[in-house]
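pinned: reference chain
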Amino acid sequence: MPDGVGGSTPEPFRAAPSNAPAEDLTHQPVTQVLQRVTEESKALIGEELQLARTELTSKAKSAGKGAGLLGAAGIAAIFGAMALTAAMILGLTLVMPPWAAALVVAGAYGVLAATLALAGRKQVQAATPLVPEQTVRSLGDAVRRVQSAWKRGQSRP
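pinned: its structure tokens
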């Protein structure tokens, strides 16, 4: 006879888990259960490692292609800068001899390079020495506190 009021109750939908055990392990010896868990864990870890390897290989290939494209873009930018340099020299030849125009452009590049070098040197000097100074100071303070507490015979500084 149907359960519930007003008709039959449909059997509840139960989806079988994809990794459901093939047999009931409740009556198996613990050693067999542990052996099976160990084997299945090894298999799962192996599958996960293979998946990770595949994913990382795919990402590495993609990153390699991206790096190659960035390199090609850099080369194209250098060619563009060379063409721009030639255009500046040719433009200046309208008002001065070609050798003087080339010297003016080279001088401008020299000034730009010197300015960038000085700014870079200043940045490097600000970052050196490459020692975490605050951490060294705080560690020194901690060592002194511990030594002082040791001399006084206290367990805590």
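why pinned: The helical segments are 30-92, 98-127, 133-152. Residues 1-17 have pLDDT under 50 and may be disordered.
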